[in-house]
Amino acid sequence: MAFCNMCGAQIAEGATVCAACSRQGPVAVAQTGTTSGLADNVAGMLAYVTIIPAIIFLLVEPYNRNRFVRFHAWQCVFFNVAWWILWFGLRILAHLPLLGFFTVLMWPLVGLGGLIVWIILLIKANQGQMYKLPVIGDLAEKQV
Question: How far apart are CA 90 and CA 69, in angstroms?
C-alpha cells in the first residue's frame, strides 16, 4: 500500500497526485509492507503501547530504516514527553492556594483527553495512516 507523506491518506499505486490533500506535482510516497517479523502498521501501533517499544523500534535494525515505523515511534516519544510535562505542571499548580482547587477538576478531564488521543493514535497507526498531532507530529516528521 502507498500513503501520502503530507496527509497520510492511502493513494493508488503509481499515482502522482494525492486525492485527499490535492497536492500538485509528484507525491512522496511512504510504502508500508512487511519487515522481518511485524507488518509496518502493527509495528507502528505497538510503538504507542508504552515508550519502551518506541525506543526499541528506533534502535532495532529493520524497523529503524522504515519511515512509517520511525514516525510513529518518534511521535510516541514526543507525546510521552509532553504528557509528563503536562502532569508535572498540574502537580505544581495543585500546590498553589487558589489554583489547587481547579486542578482537582482538571485531572479527570486531562486524563480522559490523553486516553482518547492515545486510542486515536493506536487506531490510526493500525490503519496504516501517518496521523500527525498538531505540534508533536511536526517534530516527529522532522526526526524521520
Answer: 31
pLDDT band for position 130 (cuts 50, 70, 90): confident
Three cell numbers written together for 61: 535494525
How many residues appear in the chain?
144
The three cell numbers locating residue 42: 502493527
Question: Domain limits at 67?
Answer: 35-143
For residues 83 and 103, give the distance between their C-alpha atoms in angstroms, rounded to a whole number: 16
Shared domain check, 79 and 22? no
Tens-digit pLDDT profile for residues 45-67: 999 998 899 999 999 888 888 88
Q: How far apart are CA 76 and CA 136, in angstroms?
A: 9
Q: Which amino acid is at 122?
A: L
- Same domain, residue pair 81 and 55: yes
Kindly report the pTM of this predicted structure.
0.70
